[in-house]
Amino acid sequence: MGAYSNDDLAFIPSHCSPILSQDFSSSKHIHDNLHGNIYLQPLFLKFVDTEHFQRLRDLKQLGAAHMVFPGAVHSRFEHSLGVYWLASQAVHVLHNHHRMELDIDNFDMTTVKLAGLLHDVGHGPFSHLFESEFLPRVLEGSKWCHEEMSVRVIDHIVDEHCIDIDSQIIQRVKEMILASSEFALPKSSREKYFLYDIVANGRNGVDVDKFDYIVRDSRACGLGCNFASNRLMEQMRVLGDEICYPAKDYLTVYKLFSARADLYRTVYTHPKVKAVELMIADALVKANSYLEISSCIQEPSEYWKLDDTIIKTIETAPDPELKEAKDLIRRIRRRDLYQFCNEFAVPRDKLEHFKKVTPQDIICSQKCCGVTLKEDDIAVSNVRIDLTRGTLNPLEHIRFFQDYHSSSKFSIPDERISHLLPACYQDMIVRVYSKKPGLVHAIYEAFENFQLKTYGTKAQVYETMEKKRRRL
After folding, report:
1. Rounded Cα distance, 122 and 100, in Å
2. Which residue intervals define the domain HD in the entry (predicted)?
């Protein structure tokens, strides 16, 4: 940690991006391996120095991806600091480019920075696994999401730690965090809507949250990344209360979405990563009734105690009620994972009416082969990979300008972009796993039968090796 001082709105040079020079006389800095020095002023430190925010150190950013990519052990803590820093840069860039017409004041800057800092404080163990794989199975009809939990935790932090902060700031921060979720709140201000697009952009998906995690995750996994946020950050402008980008940089914007899709395909939904996540989800479900894990989401005062160490709790507990869950964790430790049987990509003309495949679908497609499959023998992963707008071209929802003297904005339709870009913007991949090695062949054949029955053809790209299918 260290201290510096300077003007609040000026820039100082950096090797990677423009770093804001603020009044650092009472600030602390943290050296981040992606952004360099990140400076935290006293107000933001009041939130960082709480057990609720420090809990993010024990939440891996990429869930179980480190089981396949050993370097992917970074946490929600450093990601949150990174988003705070990029949000800080973004709002200062806009202030400097639009000093008079936008009237960005200290209230605006504080809300954007605080939203960036706290946007992920509501995440559960193993990140998205908790809300997408675990909770729907133990709480029927649950629509819980980490963004909604984040705003509840923020209220709790303010009350618990008696943080002296304007209630209007907190209200705006909560609105910004929920802006891209189904729980989006009505904006309390009728002005400066563009500020809501900086951290969690519900309008078109271009936000500093992605700017940070795409580069951070790629680096941690040892993958290349050809997306650079600096160019977009430096050249963005506000036209008609919306953040716009130079038309000549439309491919740079597209790289943001394509890089994200590549990470989903290569890392986030890697077949082995999903196998581990399916096992962790099963372990949490089996342990839930005894440990009452899901009950923690009711109260932020209990929720902060929940992090990735729940697995170690299960693994080391002597309680016989946790035996099944413990056995699953032991299997993960010994690399005795659910066996990947095969996958297929849903044909393009079937995407619109696709219905998630279930273990029961596979069982109903089984023909006589000497083994009777049960629902608990099979795990199915329905993986959707898109460019944030489903089957739509994301560039059509982003506004561009011709040059810096332009006062008008426009979108770029399909026919005006590079013909090398895809004509379809979404993949749906169905993967099937056997929970028991000896059933791989039976499940593989049932899975093929399901494809033939559903699509009239086998949609898989390759066949699982015969020696793997026959392994006992």
Report:
1. 36
2. 76-214
What's the CA gap between 328 and 330, in Å, rounded? 5
pLDDT tens digits, residue range 397-433?
899 999 888 889 998 877 777 656 666 788 999 999 9
3-state SS of the chain: helix, strand, coil percent to 5?
A: 50, 10, 40
CB atoms within 10 A of CB 175: 21
Q: Which amino acid is at 390?
A: G
Of 51-55, 114-118, 142-146, 321-325, the range with the lowest mean pLDDT is: 142-146
Q: Are strands 242-246 and 237-239 parallel, antiparallel or unpaired?
A: antiparallel
pLDDT in tens, 336-358: 999 999 999 998 888 888 999 99
What residues have CB less than 8 Å from 221, skipping those under 6 apart? 62, 65, 69, 71, 72, 266, 267
Which candidate in 66, 146, 156, 270 is catalytic?
A: 146
Rounded to an integer, what is the distance from CA 404 to the centroid of its chain?
Answer: 33
Residue with tokens 């402008």: 237
- Full-model pTM: 0.90
Find the helix packing angle between 76-97 and 106-118, rounded to 10°: 160
Rounded Cα distance between 423 and 305, Å, is 46
- Listing from the earlier edge strand, what are the strands of the sheet with 400-401? 237-239, 242-246, 400-401
How far, in Å, are 77, 150, 185, 249, 299 from residue 153 at the CA level?
Answer: 15, 5, 16, 38, 9
Q: In the annotation, is 119 catalytic?
A: no
**CB distance 371 to 444 below 8 Å:** no
Terminal CA-to-CA distance of the chain, rounded, Å? Answer: 56
Domains annotated for the chain, with CATH where assigned, are 28-271 (1.10.3210.10), 338-387+422-471 (3.30.70.2760)
User: Measured between alpha carbons, how far is 194 from 108 in angstroms, rounded to an integer?
Assistant: 11
Rg (CA), the chain: 24
Q: Which helix (H) or strand (E) holds 332?
A: helix 323-333
Q: Quick one: angle between helices 146-160 and 106-118, nearest 10?
A: 110
Tokens 């049932």 sit on residue: 446
Question: Contact at 8 Å (CB) between 212 and 17?
Answer: no
**Spatial distance between the Cα atoms of 334 and 338, rounded to a whole number of angstroms:** 12
**Nearest alpha-carbon partner for 263 in 387, 179, 165:** 387
Cβ pair 280, 126 in contact under 8 A: yes
Q: Which of 80, 20, 18, 9 is nearest to 50 (CA)?
A: 80
Show the tokens assigned to 309: 């160490």
